[in-house]
Amino acid sequence: MRYKINIIVSLLFLLSSYAGFSQVIISGNGEIVATDTANIILQGDWTNNANNTGFTGSAGGVVLFKGSSQQSINGSKSTTFTGMYLKNNAGLKLNSDITVTGNFDLKGGIVDATSSTLLFTGSGKTRYAKKSQHIKGPVSRIGSTIFRYDVGDGTKYAPLKVLSLNTTAKSATITVQYYESAAPGGSNVSAPLVKVSDVEYWNVSSSASGSQSKVDLFWKDGAESGIKSINADSLRFARFDGSNWVDEAATIDAASTISSGDIQINNAISIDNVNVTFGSTNNVANPLPIQLLSFTAQCQEQNVVINWSTATEENNDYFTLLRSEDAAHYEEIATLIGAGNSNTVINYTYTDWNAAGGNFYYMLKQTDYDGKNETFNPIFVNCDNNNKDVELSTIYDNDNIYARLSYAKQGDNYTIVIIDMLGKTIFYKEHIVNSENYLKLPTQTFKPGLYNIVYYNENASERLSSKFIIR
Question: Global pTM?
């Protein structure tokens, strides 16, 4: 079924039954009032620019978003929906605030709420959420009962539940957002914790100071969350107190498996503005991936020195270091053996000798003994030495001379000549500076004596020379 009708409402419009539209635009003094169990089926966008509420939904009706490309909710006026239904694999983008007082059924597609407010009130809630259909971005709710926030990052579903709210929290707006990134301050842990997740965390905040509740964390894909054990001695609930990650007494649901499950704290905590995630107290049966403390790169003349440190490692076979000039295409430049299992800080270093002046991105990948791997976010280093003079240095080993240009820019053109002590040119070569710093020049046919190697730049405005002796 395809709907060709655009409804543009600037006056009162009563809707008492089912109706389908390609898009809805409400403006001026316009208002759609749905009565009985009237449903709106929409293939396009919803825009509410009304001077008043713009829309009044029926108690048993829904607005069904059923397009074939991403739909959006727009406008200067926030819309309150009594019921919503998303059945669009391309998803729904919220460009303006909405409130949902009834069920929001997720039957296909991601709800992108990253640039708006999605608020549930009363009995409003989401249903049928999973990996391919959940809410990306913050979700808010006002209510006094148990509520599950069906949040994720658009590709990963990671719900969180609040329960046992105190009096303050019951009337406050509680907001939850999921982040698929290392928990902030992850290296600051208090005993008995030895580490916290470096792949995900949640933030819970309240509009009213003094709000408290219990919190239940879920993992829906153990591999994505790094869950390798559900033993209470290894998997813990971690809360950031502003300075350190601390362990909260919690219970792992009896039905949990490594693939999916949840862990719920036993006592209410402050949810004024708190980060929570999975933690571990056991480095042997550690349920979390390798914890990377730092990953840095520093220019040293024409080289780049890359350093990284790990706080703990489990079954770590090796690291792979990759380099890119555009942050899109990476090449492997080194492999370093990992420590296997460790609960002490280990420092690694590697010097990239083939990094001529320029800008570079470096990325680190870690591989376990079982072949599973994890890639960390890339780092950037600027080695564009525009303000430094180019330098020439040579090393001679009786068979070859190795000439090196320091601080030269990639792509610069040079002419290389070697002159003997009589002033005769015995070698000539055009050279374009690339990622190779050293140029190897054979000298086996040279007679003993003093020689001068000279580099000229493209317009001969720069002359660099260095002498060497063949004995």
Answer: 0.64
